[in-house]
Sequence to fold (149 residues):
Amino acid sequence: MSWMIGGRRPWTIRLFAIAFLSAAAIDYVQGLSAISTLQMAYTQQFPWFDWTRDWAIVALSAMFSIAAIPVAMILMRAIRIARWLVTVFSIFKLLSLPQMIMEWVSLPHVSLLHLASPLLTLVAVVLLFTPSANRWFAQKKGSGLAVFD
Fold:
């Protein structure tokens, strides 16, 4: 396949893809299971839009799709800018991790699944900066720019 980088993907890149997509899938399923709560949250964040149940599902599906795009860019083409996009946007999710841990510790009804998505995101980002991942990104120098030619 000429659109893919030559050579085998390192296990860290494969594990990154699994961890990051698993985190996105957990967020998606949790959002679908509490769609009314999600709809209210979207209404509070974006009050100028009439958030119906259907629009909340569309937004949730878009978020999952957006998470899959950099995974494909990294897994198939080793595009370095995607590594940084994943890292920067994951920071926002990871900023809430200490609060989520405190909720899990102090509230008996909070499931461990509550922590699964941010922890998987953290693992995924760490995997992007391992030595084998660095070699993966270095083997096709400038690949991020070739997309825009």
In short: Residues 53-77 form the longest helix (25 residues). Residues 1-6 have pLDDT under 50 and may be disordered.
